[in-house]
Design a protein that fits this description.
By secondary structure, the chain is an alpha/beta fold. It is 35% helix and 14% strand. The chain has two domains: 5-120 and 194-261, Rossmann fold (3-Layer(aba) Sandwich), CATH 3.40.50.1820; 125-186, no CATH class.
């Protein structure tokens, strides 16, 4: 699968492996629009793809981490990149981890944002229920969609994140979802879980697990799994941040990330 991507900086002029920023479930490359330019200002070329069934990338009936890692590997091959530094958030972090575990020679180092290589808590069923219950044929405005989602989803930040996927139509086609909701909903168990580890070895490169101090996606229970698969990993909490670390505490996130990249 040929992924759509955004590029910040010149790949051919890059003196070090580019950063590959990976979004979470129901996100897209646009989620990194506030972070990628600032990393580029610091001399880091940023490659920011839409993962399969998200954004402008192709849609497919299949969705799991080996497939996502394969998509990313093809992107590296197409762009003739020997190595990258994947920086993934949530689902994107698991895709980054699987890329590092499966194709270690293509990964210089790894950053996982608020995610561990274990099964995640399922907080998405009410989200998919709300999104799939929206009647697109009768929808007249984005505000109407917002009001519908507000009936079951309390967080305004979450609703705005989700509504990035809602696209207005034209005379031939009405409102539509950019993300492949039904496939993602059907694959939710695989997305929440982490693939079986029989076919992979521990990643021997540097890794940073950067997580929100107010989030529970990375915990003392998940630390042994991190250390087993990523023996050189460093775990660092970002004070005042929940799951959306880079959006809630962008300055602290950037400071921790740039310090890791400098070594």
């Amino acid at each position: 699968m040929q992924l759509h991507y955004r590029l910040y900086g010149d790949l051919k002029a890059a003196a070090k492996p580019p950063l590959m920023l990976l979004h979470g479930l129901l996100g897209s490359s646009s989620n990194w629009a506030g972070i990628a330019p600032r990393l580029a200002e610091q001399g880091h070329v940023c490659l920011v793809p839409d993962l399969r069934n998200h954004g402008r990338s192709p849609q497919d009936h299949h969705m799991d981490y080996p497939l996502m890692a394969g998509d990313l590997l093809r992107l590296l091959d197409d762009l003739e990149l020997e190595q990258v530094i994947p920086i993934g958030h949530s689902m994107g972090a698991k895709a980054a981890m699987w890329l590092a575990l499966s194709f270690a020679d293509r990964v210089d180092r790894l950053v996982a944002v608020d995610m561990a290589p274990v099964r995640s808590p399922n907080r998405f069923e009410p989200i998919f229920d709300a999104l799939l219950s929206l009647d697109l044929q009768r929808l007249s405005s984005r505000q109407q969609a917002e009001e519908h989602l507000a009936e079951s989803l309390e967080s305004p930040m979450l609703r705005q994140y989700l509504l990035q996927n809602l696209l207005p139509g034209d005379e031939q086609q009405g409102w539509r979802w950019r993300a492949n909701l039904r496939v993602l909903d059907a694959a939710l168990e695989q997305i929440l879980d982490f693939p079986p580890l029989e076919a992979v070895s521990a990643f021997q490169g540097d890794a940073l697990f950067l997580y929100g101090a107010e989030s529970n996606y990375v915990s003392t229970e998940s630390a042994p799994s991190i250390q087993r698969l990523f023996p050189f990993a460093r775990l660092r909490a970002v004070p005042g941040a929940g799951h959306w670390v880079y959006a809630e505490q962008p300055e602290a996130f950037l400071a921790a990330l740039l310090a890791f990249l400098a070594h």
